[in-house]
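Two proteins follow. First one:
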Amino acid sequence: MSEVQTMTPIKSDGSASKAWLRALELTASIPRNRDRIMPVVIEELATRFGDASALLSDRERFTYRELAERSNQYARWALGQGLVKGDVVGLLMTNRPEYFAVWLGITSVGGVVALLNTNLVGPSLSHCINIVSPRHLIVASEFTDLLTTALPGLTVLPTTWIHGSDDVRFRRIDPEIQRQAGETLDRSERPSLTIEDRALYIFTSGTTGLPKAANVSHARILQWTHWFAGMMGAQADDRMYNCLPMYHSIGGVLVPGASLVGGGSVVIREKFSASQFWSDVTRWDCTMFQYIGEFCRYLLHAVPSSHDVDHRIRLACGNGLAPDVWDQFKERFGIRRILEFYASTEGGVSLFNVEGKRGAIGRIPPYLAHRFSPALVRFDVDKGEPVRNAEGFCVPCAANETGEVLGKIVNDPSNVGSRFEGYTDRQASEKKILHNVFETGDVWIRTGDLMRKDEKGYFYFVDRIGDTFRWKGENVATSEVSEAICAFPGVKHANVYGVAIPATEGRACMAALVPAGELDLSALFKHMAARLPSYARPVFLRLQDEIEVTGTFKYSKTELVNQGYDPGATPDRIYFNDPGSGGWVRVDEALHDRIRAGQIRL
């Protein structure tokens, strides 16, 4: 493309209805074909599309036929190792086409593949390995040192296979795979599998403690991939750009699977790069891309280039696009359509904003309300649980009232999308479930997320329950404070959290900021006073050169909360909103001690 594409508005009637209809049609047959799992679908696609491109990268490329053959090689390797249905194989590998082939092949013969986070190290990595008890580990050669840090913490040492280079401590798997036949396995080779069998373990981010391993069945893999193929309108001439981590449900399952179901191809990049994103998209002639978390904000802060609009993107799909970024992102990069959604690996609730409503995460069409029934209930921040009335039932929220979103668990095999399959930790699974919510005997899943719903039925994300805090008797939603601060010129990122102050109730608001240059703190003070109620204005500011994010582009807060406003814990500048002077004061050790001693009234 040499010209900026004309941005066409999304019609909220026809196009939205068609998206829902496509998704419903593609997923309707899943419960009726119990032995048709994702590897079987890939075999069907290989027969249909053959030598068409499937998975592409600078490292390797697979056609549909080659993908099916490579997955069959991994299936035969698994059988050769004596794996039986339910045995676990851990996978520690960077983004690449081979990644998808590994889990596809092993799950085709009953193995369960644990997708290990490549950012974890030491005890956190050994924890994830221990809780799924794998018989084997497949580790890319670039992660052998990472694995070594986890070895002392392993309760049982799995048989470890290295992919990509020799290491005298472990076996090498890629030559073993090359020796396997790539032809389709016949029925006598495969164990009997159905969509009800477990296929993957995918780990939570660990934002509220150590990561948990979520159970993912073959049914949910099919539901994710086919539903999104319908929602995106995936076609054979589409090419999806994917730089999200493949150990995550979106980057490793949903994105490649949905694109392949539509007959298109996927470009896989090892890691996200804001500076190279649009040149990559243009070079590979992509038509869609997937985003998550603060991904789009990083793109917006990148240096402008000719590639910003010199592309063929028709759809950006993802979750976490902040309202303050939405319009700027569409305008600068010529994005014709944004498909924002809300979902979790654990399942229970999913929402889709197919109309392109700015800032909304979804809306349930009235004609589907009987099938998809998320509810918003009033939430007690102090107790950390939904409010119950005199009869012991939860209290529904009014329009635009913030509450926790719940998903009803229905014992209906035909409704795969309503499933909650829980974690390997049964106690963790039970903590996510609420009983007797609106009537005796009903069962709902807690999402742990606060939302509001407007008069037209659009849902808006407000905050994670663990992030929202109380100060001066009021609830402070960190996402709303962050949005207000980021509207100030010169603020690139704002990570908001609560910090404890002795002899005070609740937690005070603190914001870690990444400025584009030198900030005018006086002007920022006036900006926040005009946009935020007094209880939600930051009491402390921390200025950073860069902000730490998780592998899924969410702001990391744990270490910031632990360090608080102690200037001795960080070289970053920390400022205090001094009620006495009515402005920002640099925090030194003496001021820190006075605040902690309760000598300053807040």
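Second one, unrelated to the first:
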Amino acid sequence: MLWTLIRTHLRPYAGAVSAVVVLQFAATVTSLYLPSLNGQIIDKGVAQGDTGFILRTGGIMLAVTLVNILATVGVARGAAAASAGVARDLRGEVFETVGDFSAQEVSRFGAATLISRNTNDVQQVQQVLNMGLMFMVSIPIMMVGGIIMALREDLGLSWLVAVAVPLLGVIVGFVVSRMLPWFRKMQESVDAVNRVLREQITGIRVVRAFVREPFEEARFDEANRTYTGTALAVGRLFALVFPLVMLVFNVSSVAVLWFGSHRVDSGDMQVGALTAFMTYLIQILMSVMMGVMMSMMIPRASVSAGRIDEVLATRPSVVETPAPVALPGQATGAKAASGQRLDVAFQDVVFAYPGADVPVLQGISFTAQPGEVTAIVGSTGAGKTTLVDLVPRLYDVTGGSVRLGGVDVRDVALDDLWDRIGLVPQKPFLFSGTVASNLRYGDPDATDEALWAALRVAQADDFVRAMPGELEAEISQGGGNVSGGQRQRLAIARALVRRPEIYLFDDSFSALDVATDARLRAALKPWTADAVVLVVAQRVSSIIDADRIIVLEDGKVVGSGRHTDLLATCTEYAEIVASQAVREEAA
């Protein structure tokens, strides 16, 4: 999986990789040539007192060293550029893939693991790729070439090479075979730490409100200890490898000096040849050590590559239709002139989450007409939010259909569909930036006048004018520097700026006081006069004037009509109204 992923994403950098291979070859060959030159200087120059030979050979050594330095620098730069480019492309591909996920796929993976896969896992692949590009050619050439050059110097000591290299190979194989499961556990531990930390930061107000800091600290400590224990297990394997490698390295060096000195004393070998043989053995063992490092990085990178590929291989449940059908009419507001208005029809809609035993929605049928407000009420868990999410295809129905202007939403190009919809989610989210940049998510070309008009309707212009910079006032990530009610009103204004044909308000007035809620609903009427308005509400006072109220219970429609009609005909609705009236009287 690792090599498939790397090979696929290295194709755009084929030229850089080719240059790195050539430079690696040059750097390795020059490294192999230098010990032989040094041995010649000792045996032919120093031993015979030939100063001219020493100077000539020394000059060649300097030239070869310069080539080696330039080639090594080129390899490092090329490997860094190619690996960083692949990592950039991988992060972009993962980001684009996740951006196409429906809410179903995002929920299945979880935000914490998607973040760690696009950061930590990609980094692991980048590191092993960088090491591979720097040493993939030099390690085998250095091992094979070093052995050949060492044998050229003296065959009598060749048995040392035959013993040292296989011994290192056995050690590496033993350790690497035990690293793979630990690296998999390490990545899972990183996910757990990210998940707990993200929950604690996101829910810090809840944690403090319920005085649960000790409990959350214990949760984090548990995840942190698990990660630490896994890291220590891996560290122990690393700690085992390098002493063994260095033991082989040092014993081999002592053996060369011991047996080589006897051969020099007997006249079978010269001092320069012994020095060169020693250097070649060091180069061989160094290349094996680099191979050890590569081998220990590969298992963790393989796990990371598998996790990345799992994301890239996941096909979203909501997909673009290959033959899109155009919606009737045109986009509205500042974008285009008005055309035929769209209605939203639910026809025998059924929806079930994957693996669920019972559908969330069953047999839902009604039509929301343009120019009307259609409200959806019901008890907690009745399926109100899920019903609204089916219109913009955050989920796809598992039975029946949702139709806009008579066209099934699954047959509409996603961009065309989303261009007609303004959504205010149950949990309004603001992006880091300014008030203006957040509002222009609705329409990037909106003028300041259009932004102020939307803010006035959303009852947000007063507090925006009071902020330093007004439209250019800073908004922190998630809208943390504004209150919940202000966040809701800015989210409503963002949808109003879009001037869509369909408005989806998912419990979007819950943080507003009664007076602000009433003013906002009054201002909305002329603004949305020609649009379909679907409102999910918990507070009956917010939808009491709706043209139609749909009552959901256990995923089924149990009532439909105006407020006064439902009071007389729908027991569930009457109970909701009565319970809220009791709460208001108690208040």
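SUMMARY FIELD: The domain at 426-499 is CATH 3.40.50.300 (Rossmann fold). The chain has three domains: 2-313, 340-420+502-587, 426-499.
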